[in-house]
Write a structure and sequence with these properties.
The protein has one helix spanning 2-21, and strands at 49-56, 59-61, 64-68, 72-79, 85-89, 94-98, 103-109, 114-119, 131-137. By secondary structure, it is mainly beta. The longest helix has 20 residues, at 2-21.
Length: 138
């Protein structure tokens, strides 16, 4: 029992440290409802296309996103669930770890076409449906 409590305390502290270290502005919600497909952006500017991602038990919304090669995406991640979740993009070393009610954002420029898996890395969450894909087209 004590071991479980110590593990939970460790995870909570680690989560706080990681979130604080990666803290980005949760920003103002501009009311855009992002669809699963995003339009091209003008590559001559450094403006990132925003995508709002919601995490809950046990899904990622939207789960599948299609973008164009060279596009920079500003992921705005919000944990609407009642438990700890992550948003991890496989192959890019990008992960946001959020307690219930927390939000964070990060930007990624997708230079390589292909499929990038996304998932919640909390044990059992991906198996219960917290998975998706970012498809980068030429």
């Amino acid at each position: 029992m004590i071991r479980k409590i110590l593990m939970l305390v460790f995870i909570a502290i680690l989560s706080i440290v990681l979130v604080a270290g990666c803290a980005g502005s949760s920003g103002d919600d501009n009311g855009d409802n992002n669809s699963e497909e995003q339009s091209d952006i003008d590559e001559s500017t450094d403006i990132a296309s925003p995508i709002d991602i919601k995490l809950s038990e046990f899904k990622i919304t939207p789960s599948n996103i299609t973008i164009q090669k060279g596009e920079t995406i500003n992921f705005k991640i919000e944990n609407d669930g009642t438990t700890f979740h992550t948003y991890t993009i496989e192959g890019l070393d990008e992960e946001v770890r959020l307690q219930s009610g927390e939000s964070n954002s990060f930007e990624v420029k997708f230079d390589k076409p292909g499929a990038y898996g996304v998932l919640c890395t909390v044990p059992g969450h991906a198996d219960r449906g917290m998975i998706g894909e970012i498809k980068v087209e030429e």
